[in-house]
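Sample entry (220 residues):
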Amino acid sequence: MTRPARLVVIAGTATEVGKTWVAARLAGHLTGCGAMVAARKPAQSFDAGAGPTDADVLASATGVEPGTVCPAHRWYELPMAPFMAADALGRPPLLLHDLVAEIAWPEEAVDVGLLETAGGVRSPITTDGKDTVDLAAALCADLVVLVAAAGLGAINGVRLCLTALTAVPVAVFLNRYDPVDDLHRRNLAWMQDHCPEAQFVTTIDQLAGVVIHDGRPCTG
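Predicted structure, serialized as tokens:
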């Protein structure tokens, strides 16, 4: 088993900002560009019966079984942070080194490995309080894609996350960005001027370019 040539962590400023949608669309776009892509999620919690899980969506986007994306014993059927759900369900604690050790990439060479986290950047993932910052460091990630809302609250959420993500390059994806929305345009312009530590993109094509072409558009 080999590490992906590019290991990209898909994170969010908060929960429900569209991390899974972005990861799935990015996987499909990169595949269309000819890249070998794999997606993983170390642990997931969900509302049982509420529709496809994140692992289901990522599995569909990459042509594998959901249990390949997220190990079956890391599926927690309660809509809480995974470590809280594990505790509420009476299951063993989540520890960072266990989650990292369980991430299994394909045997064949992978150009881009997408790893989706849970919750926001500083939301604890494990029982001992480790978060996305710790996970990205443990994985030696090449890039963090920070998914953020484009409207009200975008600047605050992005800036808070960037203060934590100082050890790895960051690309901020403004989800549901509408170029005719004045607030969206002003938010983007302000952050581009005041947050030089990150790249800002608003389309999957632009994001794919950052991931594999150093910013050049990827048009499959």
